[in-house]
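Figure 2 data, in text form.
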Amino acid sequence: EIDDASDTKPEDWVDAAEIADPEDSKPADWDKEPEKVVDPEAEKPEDWDEEDDGEWEAPMIANPNFKGEWKQKMIPNPEYKGIWKPKRIANPDYVHDPNVHVMSKPVGTVGIDVWQVKSGTVFDNIIISDSIEEVKA
């Protein structure tokens, strides 16, 4: 089966699994604190020269009371219908071949790609045959 290329997603299909909670609102004091504040423990260096170095300003540090960007709480979307997938139809190009395993020419080469994550694995006695009796012998 394959996806039906002519099938389209309905206009009213809802893809969003979560939505912003309409009852959630930003607290009034959320934006009151700045992101950085003057370091209260900073002291002007003893060798600071205002003529050469300019007016001393204390360094800024991250504000422990800063809450960051406010984001509305997310809740499950009651109208969410899941991930839309087109309906499946029979593959018009598929043709059943009961003899797909039958080869017209003998096998000339075989490639084996081995990917191992642990060293020390040994592969030995590999047999390729078209005879069950030969394999079992």
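Caption note: Residues 48 and 56 are 8 Å apart (CA to CA).
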